[in-house]
Every structure is written in structure tokens, then in C-alpha cells.
Amino acid sequence: MRILITNDDGINAAGLAVLHAIAAEIAGPKGEVWTVAPAFEQSGVGHMISYTHPTMIAKMGPRRYAAEGSPADCVLAGLHDVMENARPDLVLSGVNRGNNSAENIVYSGTVGGAMEAALQGLPAIALSQFMGPLNMKLDNPFEAAATHGAAVVRSLLDNAIWDDAAYRLFYNVNFPAIAASEVKGVKVAPQGFRHGAGFGIEAQISPSGRKFLWVKGGRQDLTSGPGTDGEANLQGYISVTPLHADLTAHDTLSELQSRLNRDIDPAGQG
User: Fold this and answer.
1) Is 43 part of any known ligand binding site?
2) I want to staple 114 with a disulfide (CB 3.0 to 4.6 A). Which of 33, 124, 188, 246 is the partner?
3) What DSSP state is assigned to residue 51?
4) Prior bond of 153 cis (ω within 30°)
5) pLDDT truncated to tens, each residue of the chain (270 aa)?
6) Burial of 163 from C-beta contacts in 10 A (0-12 / 13-18 / 19+)
7) For binding a divalent metal cation, which residues are annotated in this chain's numbering (predicted)?
């Protein structure tokens, strides 16, 4: 198996090394693991692409490249330049330092990389490691992901739904902030929402008197709702959430059409 990996924490991030080990185990001794990752941290860029300016790319070693762009840029670079004549069988993005459960999915560059791979017609999985007091003190804060990551990826490859729709499914995996031995299992869960944990702004004045704004995140230990991804993580489970890039609220289409029909007369009388 040939696997492309990327992340949003940057080419030198500890989580990327964890992901490489996971990918190497999945690929097997006859497989290949290729890395195209951001030269610098790209956390929070979502599915951004560098459409209006070029992206410089540099070879860092065998099958290892750094690109001055977002995770989605890196996937594009991997597919259409670095691996142009050797298309991967799978794209893995992560392992992110910090969870990408609940509303974090919307902002996540890690998820954005996997999303771009799915839009390019490839199986893709995003992986993130929840951080908290119980694992930050471990010798390896990524222990849960490092220990269970390959098994989760292999199980998804063998058992998950892999369609070939235009907006094909991809998967978002989050490991709980606990020691690997304490992980209770895997739960398939929908995306939740942490009320009161949204991003905000903190203003600061520089020594030169100029005003700067820092984006601040909210508490990550808040519940995202019963049965949801973030709640599963807080309860000690690995969460798996199926996603796709189709943002249409399909459940509202019929009702919205009916409401608009009441106010707009097709004959031009309304």
C-alpha cells in the first residue's frame, strides 16, 4: 500500500512522527509512506488553499517534502506533483496535537487535509489526539494515538463505508486524553457542539503602542452533548465520525421550498 501523510502542525511536529509510524505499520514492509506537510504550523486554516499565490516545496529527505502552504495545499502538491506518477491508496492527516471534535472540525486544518483528499477521490482519515491533564504528564502525550492508531485505521479500511460519491465519505478520528491502557474502546459518534467554548478575541497593546488581536480558544473539557464525538472522548473512548464536504442542510430543503413558494408567485403576482 502507498500512503500519503500530512498534518497542520508542521513538518517537524511530534504528531507527524506518530502518524508516520502508524502509516508504516499499515503500509507494510513492501509499502511506501510519503510525507508532504506544511513547512510551518497551519493550525486553524480549515480547508484553505493557496489559490492566489504559489506554494514553494522542498525535498527534506527520501519521500519527505515540506510545502509552504496549508494541509489541503500539501495534499494537492502530493497528488499532482510529488506523487504524480504514483497515486497513493490512502491519505492520512495528523496526528493533530489537540482534539478536532465538535466545532473544532470546522476550523481544523487536519480535517481540511483529509477533506481535500476525499474531494480528489481518495480514501482519507484525519487523526487527532485530545490533550488534557491525564496525558500531558505522560512521557508521550500521543500514547493513545500511537498505541491504538494503526488498529483503528486498519479497522476503518476493512469495515467502514468507502463510497465513490462526488462528495465521498472520509473519517475523523479523535483519541481521548488518557493513557493508552485506559482507553475504553471505539464509538462512532456524530459531531457535537460545546456551548460556551467558541473562539474569541483578546486585544493587546504592543510596546510601540500598536493594537494587536489574539484569537483565543475556549475550554475543551466541556460536554459536546450526549452521544457525540467530544463527549465520547471525555468518557475515555476513541471517537470516529463520518464526514463529507457537502454542507447542504438536506433536511430543510423541502420545507424551505414550501415556505418560499408561499411568498413568491411563479406567475409574477406575488
Assistant:
1) yes
2) 124
3) -
4) no
5) 999 999 999 999 999 999 999 999 999 999 999 999 999 999 999 999 999 999 999 999 999 999 999 999 999 999 999 999 999 999 999 999 999 999 999 999 999 999 999 999 999 999 999 999 999 999 999 999 999 999 999 999 999 999 999 999 999 999 999 999 999 999 999 999 999 999 999 999 999 999 999 999 999 999 999 999 999 999 999 999 999 999 999 999 999 999 999 887 766 665
6) exposed
7) 8-9, 43, 96
- What's this model's pTM, rounded to 2 decimal places? 0.95
Exposure letters 92-128 (e unless 16+ CB within 10 A, then b): bbbbbbbbbbbbbbebbbbbbbbbbbbbbebbbbbbb
Contact of 5 with 35, CB cutoff 8 Å: yes
Cβ neighbours around 245 below 10 Å, total: 15
Cα diameter, the chain: 72
Is residue 8 annotated as involved in ligand binding?
A: yes
**CA atoms within 13 A of residue 165's CA, in its CB half-sphere:** 11
> What DSSP letter does each residue of 226-246 carry, written as one string?
TTSHHHHHHTTEEEEEEE-S-
Arch. (CATH architecture) of 2-194+221-263: 3-Layer(aba) Sandwich (3.40)
